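dumping this here before i forget
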Amino acid sequence: MAEEGHTPNAAPKVDPLAKPVTFEVVERIQAKLSQEGELNSMEILGESFIKVNDPKYSNCRVYCQVEKFKGMKARAHPSLDKASWKKGSVIAVKGGSGFAAHSRLLTVKYRYSSTNAADIPFLFEYWGSEGNATFEIKYNTAHTRFKKLENLQFILEIPPGENPEVSNLENSDYVIQGNELRWVIKELSAESSTASAEIKFSKNCELSDIFPIVVGLE
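structure:
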């Protein structure tokens, strides 16, 4: 029993339905595709986050399997133990102070750049003549890194004076914002493996002006 006038220390708050520790990876991909479907450039920006939901696990260590290849750069947050990260790709707080509970903490940032079309998790095909452009996207089953792509956006710059008409949409939608047409594929996977669209410009439109096409994915 607590003494009169004394308030015992409150137990740390713990959500019984939450996992003791959650680890999250967020990636953003941006690429530029040529008229021939070649990859002009691609960049993957990634961040990893940790959240300790149970304070008993504040001194946890996360062992990461980091793919090391040309063009890949990764760096750990200054609050982490640099020796553990460099030696074994281990995420741990330096000094033994532990991760702050109930906070989503940034741990690692990484970047990968490439001009190798084999790194794209989809196949891009384009046909164009007399102002009519047809696009088809196929899920690349040989690419094992991404099991499913969501909210895949192909951004076309609309040439001055043009009012494009979009038709024959398959597994996709579009939105026009200012001088940009965004063709959006909600999901691309082995189960939903293709998407296509036809975009009609005026006959005098130089279709080469809509390239390179910027591809965005989060």
